[in-house]
Design goal:
It is a single chain. By secondary structure, the protein is α/β, with parallel strands linked by helices. It folds into 2 domains: about 170 residues, 3-Layer(aba) Sandwich (Rossmann fold), CATH 3.40.50.720; about 100 residues, UDP-galactose 4-epimerase, domain 1, CATH 3.90.25. Helix content is about 35%, strand content about 15%. It contains 9 helices and 13 strands. The strands form 4 sheets. It has a 7-stranded parallel beta sheet. The chain has a two-stranded parallel ribbon with strand order 7-10. Strands 8-13 form a two-stranded parallel sheet. Helix 1 links the parallel strand 1 and strand 2. Helix 1 crosses helix 5. It is globular, with a radius of gyration of 20 Å.
């Protein structure tokens, strides 16, 4: 049995990771402020990632999975608070790539400022760099849009809500913008695999190699919700983010290296089906944005 530390551990990715490794019989600790309900069975270390994590010094971990670390300072605090570090995995982001880099983004691309993700992306890149300097054996994972059980952001859930309300769906422009996803279960399996095989590469893009456009994504969401879909296309005079839960940003990651380590991933339709079944009974766990519906009602009803 291994001792595993998950930073965060109360919402979406951190929560799922903690549950996944407990399901494998591991001894899972979570480090957070105890502001949300904790998973049954985890061991809570109460503390604040914004300060030096002195609370962690009394423990020894076989694996640290840093989920909710967003800045260089938070990474510094975490590392300074830990004792001997055996294995370390950082869940970073594809937002570290500037949109001006050639696509699909490869791990070898330089990181830099992205005008869509702004400080979020550059801060993740700085946290990566600090980690590499301090713990060169650590692994860094850069996912695209994560989805699955415990998703608390209003992305696929917004489409599900439209489907369950019997609404037409308002699609930006012609719906040709590509989206790339990665199921949170696949993320856990990949973490498990790299700790097992210890590949020489230490930075991985992770995600489904098959992307979908907006049309396909909405079609799948309505289908798994068992609803009939009527599409209404909205011209570019309307800001996409006002009525659709993804930025107007078409990008793709090269995930070739991930597939060499773990060749099988969950089909998007199957993943969204599972996601929908969870969401139906856990809608209160999602941070809903009523502003999408307000904008549609007040600004898009003229479209037919």
């Amino acid at each position: 049995m291994s001792n595993i530390l998950v930073t965060g551990g109360t919402v979406f990715v951190g929560k799922y990771i903690a549950e996944y490794f407990m399901g494998k019989g591991e001894n899972v600790f979570v480090f957070n402020r105890n502001k949300h309900k904790q998973l049954s069975g985890v061991k809570l270390i109460k503390g604040n990632k914004d300060t030096v994590c002195a609370e962690l010094g009394n423990y020894s971990f076989d694996l640290v999975i840093a989920v909710n670390i967003y800045t260089e300072k938070e990474m510094e605090n975490l590392i300074n608070g830990l004792g001997e570090i055996k294995d370390f995995v950082f869940i970073s982001s594809s937002a570290v790539y500037p949109e001006t880099a050639p696509q699909p983004f490869k791990e070898s691309c330089d990181t830099g400022y992205n005008t869509i993700w702004k400080d979020y992306g550059i801060n993740k890149a700085k946290a990566e760099q600090y980690l590499i300097e301090k713990i060169p054996q650590a692994y860094i994972l850069r996912p695209p849009y994560l989805y699955g059980k415990y998703q608390n952001l209003y992305r696929e859930a917004f489409v599900f809500d439209c489907a369950m309300r019997g609404m037409s769906f308002y699609i930006p422009k012609k719906g040709e913008m590509r989206l790339q996803f990665y199921n949170v279960c696949d993320l856990c399996k990949f973490i498990d695999k790299i700790i097992e095989v210890r590949p020489n590469r230490h930075i991985f893009n992770v995600g489904n190699k098959d992307t979908v456009d907006i049309n396909e994504f909405v079609e799948i969401c309505y289908d798994v919700a068992g609803a009939e879909l009527n599409k209404i296309y909205v011209d570019k005079s309307h800001v996409q983010r006002n009525y659709f839960p993804f930025y107007d940003y078409d990008y793709c990651l090269d995930v070739t290296e991930q597939y060499k380590v773990l060749p099988n991933v969950i089909n998007l339709r199957d993943g969204l089906k599972e996601d929908f079944e969870w969401y139906k009974n856990n809608q209160n766990e999602v941070l809903k944005k009523t502003s999408y519906f307000d904008y549609i009602k007040n600004n898009l009803r003229m479209y037919k």
